[in-house]
Amino acid sequence: MVGYAYQQITGDSGSGATFGDFKSRVLDIGPQVGFLFPVGDMQGYLNLKGYKEFAAEHRAEGWNVLADARDLTRRACARAGKADAGSEVGVSESTPMSAWGQTRQNSH
User: 53 near 20, Cβ under 8 Å?
Assistant: First the structure.
C-alpha cells in the first residue's frame, strides 16, 4: 500500500487567484506492485502505483497512476566499487522514466 496527504498551507495569490485564498487538501491511498527482471546482462525494475483520492477540499477527486521503469545495473556496479560501471556493462546513466495519468471527477 502507498499513500500521501496534501494540505495547502498558504492560500493562492497573484493574478491567477480568481477564486481568492482557495486553500486545498486531499488524502490518497492505493496499491503498489514492483517487478525485477533480467534484460540481457542488466537488471530491470518496473514499479506501478495507483492512488485513490478522497476527503478533497477545493480540488477534484479521482485516481492517479504512476509507472516507473529503471535500469538497476549501474547502481549495483557502482556499489561494488567498479570505476567505470556504465561503460563496462554497456549502459548509460540510470534514469527513471515516469508517466503520470490522471482521471478526475467530483470537483469540491
Answer: no
State how far the Cα of 50 lies from the Cα of 69, in Å rounded to an integer: 15
pLDDT in tens, 28-60: 999 999 999 888 888 889 999 999 999 999 888
pTM over the 0.85 mark: no
For 19, the grid coordinates are: 477564486
Backbone phi and psi for residue 78, each to the nearest 5 degrees, phi listed first: -65, -40
In whole angstroms, give the CA distance from residue 68 to residue 39.
16
The Cα 6–Cα 107 span in angstroms is 16
For residues 74 and 71, give the distance between their C-alpha atoms in angstroms, rounded to a whole number.
Answer: 7
β-pair partners for 105: 61
DSSP state of 94: -
What's the Cα-to-Cα distance from 11 to each of 16, 21, 23, 106, rounded to whole Å? 12, 4, 5, 21
- Classify 14 in phi/psi space as left (phi over 0), alpha (psi -120 to 50) or beta: left
Separation between Cα atoms, residue 37 and residue 99, nearest integer Å: 20
